[in-house]
Write a structure and sequence with these properties.
The structure is a homodimer.
Chain A (H helix, E strand, L loop, with lengths): L6 H19 L6 H8 L3 H7 L3 H21 L6 H11 L5 H17 L3 H25 L5 H20 L5 H16 L3
Helix pairs in contact in A: 1-2, 1-4, 1-6, 2-3, 4-6, 5-7, 5-9, 6-7, 7-8, 8-9
The structure holds a DNA duplex.
Chain lengths: 189, 189
DNA sequence: TGTTTTACGATGCGTTCGCATTGCAAAACG
DNA sequence: CGTTTTGCAATGCGAACGCATCGTAAAACA
């Protein structure tokens, strides 16, 4: 048998090419041939590591989900308020990494509307995120309805992400909007 | 020549079929053959009224844009606060009409991320909406920064629309979130 | 009434798609 | 050192795609 390769690493390389393709040209541009070209490998290789196109797309979805989770998990701050702010900002396409991932997230988000298999993990992630936000909110300002505030904040940053992506809101304006919104939630109102 | 037909009406019929297809199966499902089948007409007819697939999609986009604008324009209320609330709720997939349109909007919104020709009209509409919201906000509660509040509200309802579409937030919860958010904006905080 | 123009239906073309199949070089393994 | 297994490249297939073309029934118009 040929050189033993790192199976998962190869899958991740190809999955990354899928994400790049989605970010630059949308989900429609994802075909086995385009993915192979983007990854700089043969089409046979793509087929060797992914049984179907659907597998490939699902893997790409998990890949960016994991990337986002990793970025969020790397955030650490002394006080909960700063941590909250950092997490919300990390969800927006402000850094180079986030700018690369956000279009992919947006594409999968829209696809989830008509594809239940994407909706399920997306709902789970969204739920976990809301629970975490609620915890942080009540840590900063006990009382009130932290779950409601968390849901509202999540919807707000999701929408803001799209507005920034289509160029309706600049990165600076988005950051200011987050700060203002966060101020409203974290101060007794 | 055959029976003189209402050209625009025929285009709207086909465009409506496109919207139905997008709402139920996503943008990928839009092909000339599928559209013809959904509209119950021949493929030749679709081609007769739309030179290219791109024309067809652009027309469908204008169609739902006009529909949303019409629904928003039909809103009338005595006091500005009620009007503001009604408009925000109308942007969410709560009524049957909005539930049919929201998935289409979401699909085009995501497509706009990688398709500048969709981004431009979307930015314009979003800008007009924000300006209108800002006007209403300052009518209810003068002072503050109505433009900022308007942008934040718009991002919030956009994100909330997606959350409702993927089933993360129920219609009732969404309505309550809008009320709460609106209360924050319209009362001195 | 004859002519012209319009609204299509039908069909075909070249391309691209996802996927299956085949073949084979090479390295791990006995 | 042979055998076997693995990683992949190449090719082919049927289906679906967007689009161009052609034919024609029929109504508007002269």
């Amino acid at each position: 048998m040929p050189k033993q390769v790192d199976h998962d690493e190869r899958r991740r390389e190809i999955g990354a090419a899928v994400c790049r393709l989605i970010a630059q040209r949308g989900l429609d541009a994802v075909s086995l041939r385009h993915v192979a070209a983007e990854a700089g490998v043969s089409m046979g290789r793509v087929q060797h590591y992914f049984a179907t196109k659907d597998d490939l797309l699902m893997f790409a979805f998990e890949l960016i989900s994991d990337r986002v989770a990793a970025r969020l998990g790397a955030i650490s701050a002394d006080d909960p308020a700063a941590c909250l702010r950092a997490v919300l900002l990390e969800l927006l396409p402000l850094s180079a990494a986030a700018r690369a991932e956000a279009p992919v997230l947006a594409a999968f988000l829209a696809q989830a509307v008509v594809e239940p298999r994407l909706g399920e993990p997306l709902r789970r992630g969204s739920g976990e995120m809301a629970a975490w936000l609620a915890g942080m909110i009540s840590a900063v300002r006990p009382g009130g309805d932290p779950e409601r505030d968390a849901s509202a904040l999540l919807a707000f940053v999701d929408g803001l992400m799209l507005q920034v992506l289509i160029g309706q809101v600049s990165a600076e304006a988005a950051e200011e909007l987050v700060d203002h919104q966060l101020g409203r939630v974290l101060t007794r109102g």
